[in-house]
Amino acid sequence: MRIRCPYCGERDNGEFSYLGDAAPVRPDGMDASSEAMHDYVYLRDNRAGEIRELWYHAAGCRSWLVVTRDTRTHAITDVQPAREVAKTRRAETRLAETRTVTPAGSASHA
Amino acid sequence: MRYSLFSVLGQALRGQRDWKPQWRDAAPKAEYDVVIVGGGGHGLATAYYLAKEHGITNVAVLEKSHVGSGNVGRNTTIVRSNYGLPGNIPFYEHSMKLWEGLEQDINYNAMVSQRGVLNLYHSDAQRDAYARRGNAMRMAGIDAELLDREGVRAMVPFIDFDNARFPVKGGLLQRRGGTVRHDAVAWGYARAASDRGVDIIQNCAVTGIRRENGRVTGVETSRGFIGAKKVGLSVAGSSSLLAAMVDMRLPIESHVLQAFVSEGVKPLIDCVMTFGAGHFYVSQSDKGGLVFGGDIDGYNSYAQRGNLHTIEDVMEGGMALWPGLGRLRLLRHWGGIMDMSMDGSPIIDRTDIGGLYLNAGWCYGGFKATPAAGFCFAHTIARDEPHPHSAAYRLDRFATGHLIDEKGMGAQPNLH
To answer: Which ipTM value was assigned to this complex?
Structure first.
């Protein structure tokens, strides 16, 4: 298996270390219920098929990457810097928050 | 047919023509008292002990492929009970005792060989940790011996004691540990369960689990619907996929573990030996091949095959410990899919759904547990309560904080 790092090019997977599924999002620690924290820390979808997961290019550029890979075949279809993925997610969250604070009536077509 | 010296001699005289199939290849009935999903070692053992210990014989074992095609035929055949935590010690010792009586119990030659399991240590700190584990075992009545360097040298003189980085300082030895012929365990339990009336249904993949009012009523399969009062899931590697059929998420990730066999050679090593500084374990099969393995590949996988990077890592571990290995050629290697749980320990429990039971999360230590897992899972299914030996293997322990983390790695399945 080889991973095409966006900074370093195609490299052997031995250069990378693995964290796991990129889907779980940490709940806000102060307000999160213990159930939500339990789900985040311990429960996984563990799907057979394409999943997005976090890899760290330890023996290369030392970047975190979000890799889209099929767990049945190990075929990799997409690699993005985790930083970009997080930025996009933050922007989407902010947009959603903006929508919820807009006065009623305008939210539906915001 | 009962196996004995006389039946073997009789067959020899008759040219081995009269052997019968060892178990019935059953077709599914409309309904069973208990359906076990997964015809691996654990599932077959569960069916056997349901019949033997609890008198429940209207049981089907559903296997998506053929008996022996999954992890029970893919492991490195090691059995041991050298655990250090209270939740694990009585369970694995129960398993060890069942191994010791297995062949008489099921009238089958499983080639149980108590050749000893030797865990090497390479530093003072590791010696102390092993001494502590050995003491925990001895307090529970399990045999354990802490060997010094010379004690190890007497057993395995050929390893590199003076490796510059990881010199061998001694080892923790469990003499009652050893190996068992893995395929024979599957076949033996299948035959013994079938003899007691259990239906073993092969090439029957479960595609759905039917529920009514919070209780299971049966399973949808590739061979039609099969009704069941109780359903036990025992499908290591695929537990999350089965759980998803009833909208459950599990504290499990599926990972691939590779194992290896060398070409056959004359007797080289007469125990199971593990390297304490890397991850490498080796024994020799009766055919002469060295059977060995190391870490899981470390990424989620359902592919039953791994990557070269891990193979190199295992070989490096082996060569660091035993340089003579380099003279041997690798004959074959393969992969199996492991249920890696969040604390490295298994789950044998009821679920929130009535009549649905779960045996999962065995990481890469499921083979040695086969008899006790079957014994305790059968108890849980029959009595609807955990067996005392598996009472710690609760599904909700991650929420309550009662984790059983032998290695202290935390919720990172690929490190256990």
So the answer is: 0.91
